[in-house]
From TrEMBL:
Residues 592-856 form the NUP160 middle TPR domain. The lineage of its organism: Eukaryota, Metazoa, Chordata, Craniata, Vertebrata. PANTHER family: NUCLEAR PORE COMPLEX PROTEIN NUP160. Residues 901-1155 form the NUP160 C-terminal TPR domain. This is NU160 protein. It comes from Nothocercus nigrocapillus. GO terms for molecular function: structural constituent of nuclear pore. It comes from the Eukaryota. The gene is Nup160. InterPro entries: Beta-prop_Nup120_160, Nucleoporin_Nup160, NUP160_helical, TPR_NUP160_C, TPR_NUP160_M.
Length: 1156
């Protein structure tokens, strides 16, 4: 396409359009001609001289068209449009053409419109099939954007686009303000400076110091503060300066940094191009450092922002259908503009402070009006008065303006149906940029309308002051303006609140805080409506309005807009002007304070934005009477998080009065499935109690539950729940008396029993037993005893002291028999279950305590019932016992009742003390001694060598001493047969027995002492038929031990015949022969005193006898051993002795017979 064209043919603007399988190139050249080329045919299809459409083109033809611009716009229905900007000195012209196709590929241009523009410098323009959008720089080098509808606008009137102004060149700092705080607040106000501008300014201000550019908004704020303060302190050389000088220096350095920010913000905000998306009609400004979006302006804002010359030429029919009303509104807006332009910064600050400090805006408006009148040097009041004269009905016009700005809705729009639209809409406007655009638009509207409402309030005060019937209209002297004041004031405060929220930054919340918050919300069952994901604020600050839009509002708005049948939005292919207008129009009611919905504060609560929520409610509460209870509840949540529990409780109690009247509180009290339904107030209290419980504020739980008890006077089930709650928290706090009172007041027996059981266990665990013993337990005595008994029988005896508690409980009530029974059972179980020295010590003390109890009772009542063994107790919670085949074994229903008297207890006490003595002597016996019977204990004592103790026990329980003598005899045998080790060990057990003093000339051995102990016992404890001698001799002979002489001599005196029989039993024939010979001699009178024979054989003495049977057995045994000569000799001796004895008996018998 280059060809051999000269300089005049060079294109200054090119555009390409694809149509009918070909690509057409349109070139606007320096010779003011438009050429059309076909890429497919490689040829020029059309040349059009554009100067034909310029009214005066003579001078233009001679100049090169270097400033011309060309843009295309295509429509399926209208075809291809060409927009041409023809640049001429001191003027410019837009021409719009439609490409017309003729036969044989011939093309021509159909001129649609020519539009003339001012002398501003065109930077860029965009074309649609109906409009031209143009970007200029004016003479002051300010950005100007205008648009025009070239089809309908016959007058050629361009529409003004209101641009975001650059920040103020200077920041006003009053002497009562801190310069650092003022500048930081102004610089870091969302939407005022970009992060890039601040970072570049920071880099220049710090003289090129390398800094981390990837900073969050908060981190950037800290870096700026550090940099400015460092520069400031490094420049202050004097150690002392006055506060005024210090303040002035701070302002100087901060203003220096602010100038850097302003410089870079201006550079980065300079528009480079205009972008128009042909599919959505979205218009954007491409700037050096950012991207700006243009959005439609509402009629009210449009009128207020229009310049005076444009306002005068505004088409009244485009405002309202009623032309007179339109004129009235335009005149009213002119009055408002006159007021707004006259208000100084101090006057504006007066209204700002009134809203911030919760003072009536009407008073502030009245003060501003007085200042305006006092400082009216340009006769503005006269101009306003004359303008008011032109308004036919000012009150009605104001009412119309107020209705246009009021977003209060009758029905709750917020609870839209679920999003049942195409999936590609699910993320519509879900990004951070979209949220920023929407919320910035909302903030802009709030800012503008706050000013409108402010000026309107001042104008209404002026009307009240004038009181002119000609101005106000007949019959409207004071009533209507006063009513309008009361309508305008909440409107102003609403927009102030929305503007504040649009500028209030969201806090970055740690994940653990969010999770903790989620637990609290789960108690309230609100977690499904709130945000629970943390947001890292990197590229710029996120306001709480943006947070709300992204997390909650967007889904509601999109659902509402696209789920409605026959909606116009569904057919507009997501047209930007319509869609953004609809979204903002639906978003504002969600933020509107006086609407019944409560999603915005709820979102702040769910996102842990408690500081912001607290300020929001503070600004809202004095004047907004909608959702007052919900606000109180939210404030309570804030106080709870801030650690001010008592303030939180006050707020929760205030909110209770609105339960059942507000949607948020109604959702809060929805009952769960299966939950007992009570009154709304009680359900509300229940939710708050759960919340306070989870946060860990038992004192507040008690206070609120006590308040709820009065509410539940007629509902015993709720009363029982609340009393249980009060009891639990009093108990947790250690308020034992209060917990007991709450327990006694519980109307539900089962809950009362549960609380009682808990009280017993907790007080035992805390060792606060005195309280437990001393509580009166009116009508609960048996239950308390049962609980303590069941615990006593179910837990480890050495870890818990339930038996001792029960003993003290009965003693305190003078029930000594029960106390004795308890201690006796305790002692029995100690013996069975705690087989240690400590257990036996406690067992003895238990039996002593039981004895003491019975001694305090009259003798006829001094008895107890033998406690059952452990297996019979039916312990609560214990698993059933089963037989080998798995079947549950039958629990015996009856048992034999055994009565124990005082003497029985004394015996048990003796037994326990003896067991303790045994274990103290030999710890190895502890495992068996605890529950041993008296007989078993005797055996253990004998084995341990405690013979004195064993004899004492036998005498107490009337047991024979045979085991003692047998055991001692066996020990003597062992000592006699043992070595030195046995001798040394024997002294231990010998020392434990009382030996009678004996003076000897030589040192006796342990064996001697053992035999001496045995001898002393045989003397000390005689028995019938010499039982103990016989058992000792039996034991000795059984072990082949020769009988000691003292034992033989002792037994000869008692029962010589039995000794003979024992000799025969053990085949001791020689000993038996000696005994028989001695015995016969003793009977005949020789040594009779050694055999206990008082009167030997004589005619005058009583009859005597010999154990002939035993002697015959001896003779028989000797006779049978004929081979043993020794035995034969013995036989002969005995035989001769018997013969001799018999002769003497015969003589004595005859003498006795003769004597009679």
């Amino acid at each position: 396409f280059r060809g051999d064209c000269g300089p005049s043919d060079l294109p200054v603007s090119l555009s390409v359009h694809c149509l009918d399988h070909d690509a057409f190139l349109f070139a606007l050249c320096q010779d003011h001609k438009l050429r059309m080329w076909s890429y497919k045919d490689q040829m020029c299809l059309m040349v059009a001289d554009l100067l034909e459409f310029v009214p005066v083109s003579k001078d233009l033809r001679l100049a090169a068209g270097t400033g011309h611009r060309l843009r295309l716009a295509f429509s399926q229905s209208l075809g291809l449009y060409l927009g041409v900007y023809l640049h001429a000195p001191k003027r410019g012209q837009f021409c719009v053409f439609q490409l017309v196709s003729t036969e044989s590929n011939r093309y021509s241009l159909d001129h649609i419109s020519s539009l003339f523009c001012s002398q501003e410098t065109l930077v860029d323009f965009a074309l649609t099939p109906a409009e031209i959008w143009a970007l200029w720089h004016n003479e002051e080098n300010q950005t100007v954007v205008k648009y025009i509808n070239f089809e309908q606008n016959v007058a050629g009137q361009w529409n003004q686009v209101f641009m975001q102004p650059l920040p103020e060149e200077e920041v006003t700092v009053r002497h009562d303000q801190d310069p650092r705080e003022t500048y930081l607040e102004y610089i870091f106000m969302p939407g005022r400076f970009t992060s890039a501008a601040i970072q570049k300014a920071l880099q220049i201000f710090s003289q090129g110091t390398e800094r981390d550019l990837d900073l969050t908004w908060d981190e950037l704020k800290k870096e700026v503060t550090l940099a400015v303060e460092s520069e400031f302190h490094s420049s202050v050389t004097e150690y002392e300066c006055s506060p005024e000088e210090f303040w002035q220096l701070q302002v100087e350095f901060w203003s220096k940094f602010y100038a850097c920010c302003l410089q870079y913000q201006e550079a980065l905000s300079r528009p480079l191009a205009l972008h128009l998306n042909p599919y959505t009609n979205m218009v954007c400004l491409l700037k050096k450092g950012s991207l700006s979006f243009l959005m439609p302006c509402s009629m009210v804002d449009h009128l207020y922002l229009l310049s005076n010359e444009h306002l005068l030429t505004e088409d009244d029919a485009a405002i309202f259908d009623d032309l007179e009303m339109s004129r009235d509104v335009v005149c009213l807006v002119q009055c408002l503009r006159l007021i707004g332009e006259s208000i100084s910064m101090d006057m504006a600050f007066l209204m700002e402070m009134a809203c911030s400090r919760l003072q009536p805006p009407e008073k502030a408006a009245e003060q501003i009006l007085e200042d305006l009148i006092a400082n009216d040097t340009e006769n503005v009041m006269e101009d306003i008065h004359s303008k008011l004269q032109e308004i036919r009905n000012p009150i009605h016009a104001m009412g119309v303006l107020i209705r246009e700005m009021d977003y209060e809705t009758d029905a709750d729009m917020e609870r839209a149906q679920p999003l049942a639209v195409r999936m590609n809409l699910a993320q519509l406007y879900g990004g951070g940029t979209a949220a920023a655009v929407v919320c910035c638009g909302v903030g802009k509207i709030a800012t503008i309308r706050f000013l409108i409402c402010r000026d309107l309030l001042i104008l209404q005060q002026l009307l009240l002051r004038l009181g002119d019937p000609m101005v106000l209209g007949a019959g409207q002297l004071f009533q209507s303006p006063q009513d309008l004041l009361h309508r305008t004031s909440p409107l102003l405060l609403s927009y102030y609140l929305i503007r504040w929220a649009s500028q209030c930054l969201a806090s970055d919340i740690p994940v653990d805080t969010l999770e903790s918050n989620l637990q609290h919300l789960s108690v309230l069952e609100l977690a499904d409506t709130t945000a629970i994901t943390p947001h890292k604020l990197v590229s710029g600050p996120q306001t709480i309005v943006e947070l709300f839009f992204q997390e909650v509002a967007r889904k509601h708005i999109i659902s509402r807009l696209f789920s409605q049948p026959n909606t116009s939005l569904a057919d507009t292919s997501l047209n930007w002007p319509h869609l953004i207008t609809a979204i903002v129009a639906d978003f504002l009611p969600l933020l509107w304070p006086s609407n019944p919905g409560f999603l915005f504060p709820e979102c702040l609560m769910g996102s842990c934005q408690y500081t912001q929520l607290q300020e929001y409610i503070r600004l809202l509460q004095p004047w907004c009477h909608v959702n007052m209870g919900s606000c109180c509840f939210m404030m309570g949540r804030c106080y709870l998080v801030m650690g001010e529990g008592h303030k939180a409780l006050d707020c929760f109690c205030q909110a209770a009065s609105e339960v059942g009247r507000e949607e948020f509180l109604d959702r809060l009290i929805q009952a769960e499935e299966g939950e007992m339904v009570s009154t709304p107030h009680l359900q509300y209290y229940n939710k708050v109690l759960r919340l306070l419980d989870m946060v860990g504020l038992p004192e507040l739980v008690i206070q609120l539950a006590s308040l709820a008890v009065m509410e539940a006077a007629d509902d015993w089930r709720s009363q029982a729940t609340l009393r249980t709650c009060i009891f639990k928290h009093h108990l947790d706090l250690g308020h034992n008396s209060e917990a007991y009172v709450a327990l006694t007041q519980n109307p539900d027996p089962s809950r009362q029993l549960d609380c009682l059981r808990q009280l017993v266990v907790v007080l035992c665990e805390r060792s606060q037993l005195q309280d437990l013993v001393e509580f009166p337990f009116v009508n609960l005595h048996n239950e308390v005893v049962g609980i303590i008994e069941s615990h006593a029988r179910a837990v480890d005896l050495m870890t818990h002291n339930y038996y001792e508690l029960l003993y003290a409980f009965h003693i305190y009530r003078h029930n000594y028999r029960k106390a004795g029974t308890v201690m006796f059972e305790y002692g029995m179980r100690l013996g069975r279950e705690v087989r240690t020295l400590r257990g036996l010590q406690k067992q003895g003390n238990c039996f002593l305590a039981a004895i003491n109890c019975l001694r305090l009772i009259r003798p006829e009542y001094a008895w107890i019932v033998q406690p059952a063994s452990g297996a019979v107790y039916e312990r609560p919670g214990a698993s059933p016992k089963r037989s080998h085949d798995g079947e549950c074994t039958a629990v015996p229903t009856t048992r034999k009742i055994e009565i124990l008297e005082l003497k029985d207890l004394e015996k048990e006490c003796v037994l326990a003390q003896i067991r303790l003595t045994l274990v103290q002597h030999d710890l190895s016996t502890a495992t068996v001694a605890g529950s041993s019977t008296p007989e078993e204990t005797v055996a253990l004592l004998v084995r341990a060598g405690l013979f004195d103790t064993a004899i004492s026990l036998c005498q107490t329980f009337n047991l024979p001493l045979t085991p003692v003598f047998e055991g001692l005899a066996f020990k003597c045998i062992k000592l006699q047969l043992g070595g030195e080790v046995a001798q040394a060990e024997a002294w231990d057990w010998l020392a434990a027995n009382q030996l009678s003093a004996l003076v000897t000339t030589k040192e006796s051995s342990a064996t001697d002492e053992a035999w001496r102990l045995l001898s002393s016992y045989l003397e000390r404890y005689p028995s019938q038929n010499s039982l103990y001698h016989r058992c000792v001799i039996n034991k000795l002979l059984a072990h082949g031990i020769p009988l000691p002489n003292w034992l033989i001599n002792s037994y000869k005196k008692v029962d010589a015949a039995e000794l003979l029989r024992l000799y025969l039993n053990y085949d001791l024939l020689e000993e038996a022969v000696d005994l028989v010979l001695e015995y016969i001699d003793a009977v005949l009178g020789k040594g009779h005193q050694y055999f206990g024979i008082e009167f030997p054989l004589s005619a005058t003495a009583p009859t005597v006898w010999l154990p002939y049977t035993a002697i015959d057995q001896l003779l028989q045994a000797l006779r049978e051993s004929t081979t043993n000569q020794h035995n034969l000799g013995l036989y002969q001796k005995v035989h001769d002795k018997i013969e001799d004895y018999q002769q003497k008996v015969s003589v004595a018998t005859r003498d006795r017979l003769y004597r009679h």
